[in-house]
Amino acid sequence: MHKKLTIAAAFAAMLCSAQGASIVTGTGFAAGVRLQSLSGSLITTTVQYAVGSFSGQLPSSTATFAEIRSGFKEFARTTANGDAAGAKITNGTAMTATAGAAGTTVDDFNTRQIYVLIGNTPNLDNATEYAFYTGTTASGTNWLFPADVTAASSVNAIAGSPALINTIVGTEIDNATGNDYLKLYGIPEPTSAVLALMGVLGLARRRR
């Protein structure tokens, strides 16, 4: 009996130490998806992006950063280093599963569609420009998390061609030279938001 318990404990320990599922983000083509600012210039600084799922109604192309974050269930995040040629998301960057990001469970990810949220700063939470996208594989299926994100497996989250990237917020650009760009949206400054709100309140008061 003792021997059986010892074997069971060893097996359980092996399962617990298994490598978490990695979501491989990249392009599967050319040099990668380079990032452009709202003005159209290349982003040359380090950027950060997160892979996760989305709950609730999918945001529109005009969704704010806060609206996306409220429904975004983060699985993991990593950085893309920038240089003179621009920061880019390249093929083969592995993102290992975190042990349950705050407020999430494995059910938030298992077999669910993969979404990517990217910002123009080394810390996504401080981004001033952002993009949100998903896509399909070369075979035409949606990017999906594996059936068990805690198991030792991986999935190619981005593969094929630029046409397979479905940008929800932001603008995808495939230029004539073969470099693929994703333009990020700007996050309104607090002062701009306050001024806009004051204008709306002023109009409402005048109508009364």
Short description:
With 208 residues, this protein is an alpha+beta fold. It is 19% helix and 29% strand.
Show the helix and strand layout.
Layout: H1 2-16, E1 22-25, E2 33-36, E3 47-54, H2 65-71, E4 72-80, E5 88-89, E6 93-96, E7 115-119, E8 129-135, E9 154-156, E10 165-169, E11 171-174, E12 180-183, E13 185-186, H3 190-207
Parallel strand pairs: 1-9, 2-12
Antiparallel strand pairs: 1-6, 2-5, 3-4, 3-7, 7-8, 8-10, 8-13, 11-12
Features:
208 residues, 4-stranded mixed beta sheet
Written overview of the protein:
- By secondary structure, the protein is of the alpha+beta class.
- The protein has one domain (19-207).
- Helices cover 19% and strands 29% of the residues.
- It has helices spanning 2-16, 65-71, 190-207; strands at residues 22-25, 33-36, 47-54, 72-80, 88-89, 93-96, 115-119, 129-135, 154-156, 165-169, 171-174, 180-183, 185-186.
- The radius of gyration is 20 Å and the shape is globular.
- Residues 1-19 and 191-197 have low confidence and may be disordered.
Low-confidence stretches: 1-19, 191-197
CA-based gyration radius: 20 Å
Give the tally of β-strands: 13
Strand content: 25-35%
The helix tally amounts to 3
Following the backbone from N to C, one meets helices and strands in this order, namely HEEEHEEEEEEEEEEH
How far apart are the termini?
A: 82 Å
Give the overall shape. globular
Name the average pLDDT: 74
Report the helical percentage.
10-25%
Structural class of the secondary structure composition?
alpha+beta
Largest sheet: 6 strands, antiparallel
Total individual domains? 1
